[in-house]
Amino acid sequence: MTDPTPLLSDVFGHSAFRPGQEDIVRAVAAGQEVLAIMPTGGGKSLCFQLPALMTPGVTVVISPLIALMRDQVRGLREAGVVAGALTSGNTPEETDFVWEAAEAGTLKLLYLAPERLAAGAALGMLRRIGVTRIAVDEAHCVSQWGHDFRPDYLRIGELRRALGVPVAAFTATADAETRAEIVEKLFEGQPPVSFLHGFDRPNLHLAFQPKNSPRSQILKFAAARKGASGIVYCGTRAKTESLARALREEGHPAVHYHGGMEAEDRRVVEARFSREDGLIVVATVAFGMGVDKPDIRWVAHADLPKSIEAYYQEIGRAGRDGAPAETLTLYGADDIRLRRAQIDEGLAPADRKEADHGRLNALLGLAEATGCRRKQLLAYFGDALETCAGCDHCDSPPEVMDGTEAVRKALSAVLRTGEYFGIGHLTDVLTGNATDKVRARGHDDLPTFGVGRDMTRPVWQSVFRQMLGLDLVRPDPERHGGLRMTEAARPILRGEASVTLRKDALKAAETTRRPAV
Ligand code: ADP
Ligand code: ZN
């Protein structure tokens, strides 16, 4: 195998690998099957482009976006690499170039649009030209549940088998379910070597606050950053307008943005935001996809995002230039109810809804964390963290209390019900609420039934969320998000370890009148 380091500088012009890149490059070049999870902008393309140059034969790259394929092909050719693309938009000259290079044996990377796989015609040609491996960009497009589902991606597994070559798959989507689906569909169940790297964004400062007086909390945050470009995300369209007005009254240049606006008006906001310094956009999540401004200095959530993934993506729009940027996320009982209702009233099938509740729980666990936010956020994605570069809890730790007994009761409810149920049902069991489901399962006869009557339902829910945050329980996607106990919880159950819980979160939960289910 060729040494990758000289190629890194000679062809790609980079002086060093980013964390994780070299291991992935070596594994791919060695012919291993690989699943690499890296955040957007982390440098995934290098991880299949470089191995293509280290080994003989053609690397087939399957990618969902024609524009992106063209950019990469252009970049590679400028660097002197023989690369080509076969897409529906090809000119005859481009197609001829690709065939000739393939027949001549000089072609190193062949980008294929996924719909090319449907024709079946591709197979004969690929057999002839000597394919070394298949690289799959945006591999989460095989997931039928994801928003980017591409039916033609389901044919990649067949192609892998027909050609008998390894697959190297890349995605920024890190949740366990999508990963499992990628392994099943792309690798036909044979687990690849997995890599997960680079989710930490050290220049982003993370902070959460319980929502007390949301408008003044946001105004205060903005006032401390006057003159800097920022985004405020809101849960409703109406709120974007009223909050933008309030910011203007405080002397900030601020505009609103939501999906209900005319396309032309939206474009004007996008153009102003990227051009102007110091503009604040108050928006729904409709704002973001097309936003490519490197110097956004802060992102605030006036309402809780819908999941931990959404949170990560939304705060991730700040500080793309690597300079320090700040984030603040507000959360309150109303948000939790709203997000729950949105999931329940959505059109997704039941198991999907359970999983969405699980992702929301993970975010709530982060909001009610006792320790470092960054560590907990990265742990969710499976990425380890050595030192936190900045979060509100590392700045000043929150008030805590001993929660060992409550956690033990909660764990016993999890175990005695067979590690199969979500927070709602477990709370029913603990508080002695004999619902139809509780009675049908005979859970009203368990010794755990009603042992938690001394605490209200919202307090128990906060306990469970904090347990999720501490990774004492985990939603099991194979059991519709039912909670399972983790190894970390065992010493607590045996009385060998204690747990601390957030005092303010429990107190805030206690004052919630209507239970948030
Ligand atoms: P994505 O992971 O989103 O596909 P890209 O592969 O497009 O990201 O890479 C994002 C940017 O990072 C590109 O501009 C690329 O040139 C740059 N990059 C990738 N690897 C390195 C490296 N080792 N050193 C410096 N820049 C790099
Ligand atoms: Zn921290």
Automatic annotation (TrEMBL):
- Does this entry carry the keyword Metal-binding? yes
Q: Which family does it belong to?
A: Belongs to the helicase family. RecQ subfamily.
Keywords in alphabetical order: ATP-binding, DNA damage, DNA recombination, DNA repair, DNA-binding, Helicase, Hydrolase, Isomerase, Metal-binding, Nucleotide-binding, Zinc
Q: Which residues form the Rhodanese domain?
A: 216-270
Q: What is this protein called?
A: DNA helicase RecQ
Q: Which GO terms are recorded in the biological process aspect for this UniProt protein?
A: DNA recombination; DNA repair; DNA replication; SOS response
EC category: isomerase
Task: List GO molecular-function terms, semicolon-separated.
Answer: 3'-5' DNA helicase activity; ATP binding; DNA binding; four-way junction helicase activity; hydrolase activity; metal ion binding
Looking at the record, the residues that make up the Helicase ATP-binding domain are 25-192
Q: Which cofactor(s) does the record list?
A: Mg(2+); Zn(2+)
Q: Which residues form the Helicase C-terminal domain?
A: 214-364
Query: Known catalysed reaction(s)?
Result: Couples ATP hydrolysis with the unwinding of duplex DNA by translocating in the 3'-5' direction
Annotated Gene Ontology cellular component terms: bacterial nucleoid; cytoplasm; replisome
Task: State which Enzyme Commission number(s) the record gives.
Answer: 5.6.2.4
Q: Does the keyword Isomerase apply?
A: yes
